[in-house]
Amino acid sequence: MRHKVGFKRLDVKESHRKALKRSLITSLFKYERIETTVVKAKAVQGTAEKMITRAKTDSVHNRRIIAKDINDKAVLAKLFTDIAVRSKERAGGYTRILKIGFRPNDAAEMAILELVDRKSAEEKKDEKPAKSSAKKTAVKAEKKPAVTETAAAESAE
Amino acid sequence: MAVPKYKVSKSKTRSRRAANMKLERPVLSECSTCGSKIPSHRVCPKCGFYRGQQVIETEKLD
């Protein structure tokens, strides 16, 4: 009797599960790499990939369908104008799940869910200072004391 | 009605139970980057590499 095994129920009610999945998918598109449990990662991977496939064709209709589940205008725009463009050459398999061991608290197996075409740390760094010169100086001012702090910590050791 | 003829000794009871308590040794493979023993299909917790790529940052103890 294989009743109630069609999909991962995640031990929560339908409405809770829907909200949880939306939240995870929004975070995935926003941060491009999220840490969660293996079961949750697998539960949202398929939906997220289907969204990217749909986002490859930018139309009002497609945007409205995706907007049903992504309640964040910035993330929605990013999906259509950035992530979908980056994934243009890829015919599916836009995300990957990496197993990273067990959580200490409840021994749940944890995973990283990330976009295969995600930006590396260096690319992100290049992008940020280019946006505005005002931010550039602010970032520099923040960085300077941080460097001296680490240097002090090293000399203390 | 069928009835046991003899009392089952402590030794018999315990050996019967112990036979089902054996622990299995986990099957481990080697990290291709640092060579430490890790479960297969997992990111190496020691060096943070998976399939030759740095995936997560790990603390250096030295």
Strand and helix layout:
The complex is a heterodimer of chains A (157) and B (62).
Chain A lengths: L13 H18 L1 E5 H18 L4 H8 L5 H14 L8 E8 L6 E7 L5 H11 L1 H24 L1
Antiparallel strand pairs in A: 1-3, 2-3
Helix pairs in contact in A: 1-2, 5-6
Chain B lengths: L9 H9 L10 E2 L6 E2 L10 E2 L2 E2 L8
Antiparallel strand pairs in B: 1-2, 3-4
List key phrases describing it:
heterodimer; A: 157 residues; alpha+beta; 50s Ribosomal Protein L17, Chain: A; 2 domains; 6 helices; globular; B: 62 residues; two-stranded antiparallel ribbon; 1 helix
Q: How would you portray this structure in words?
A:
The complex is a heterodimer of chains A (157) and B (62). Chain A has helices spanning 14-31, 38-55, 60-67, 73-86, 121-131, 133-156, and strands at residues 33-37, 95-102, 109-115. By secondary structure, chain A is of the alpha+beta class. Chain A folds into 2 domains: 14-117, Ribosomal protein L17 (50s Ribosomal Protein L17, Chain: A, Alpha-Beta Complex), CATH 3.90.1030; 119-157, no CATH class. In chain A, helix 1 (14-31) packs across helix 2 and helix 5 packs across helix 6. The longest helix of chain A has 24 residues, at 133-156. Chain B has a two-stranded antiparallel ribbon with strand order 1-2. A two-stranded antiparallel ribbon of chain B has the order 3-4. Chain B is rod-shaped and about 70 Å long. The A-B interface holds A 98-101, 112 and B 41-43, 45, 50, 55-56.
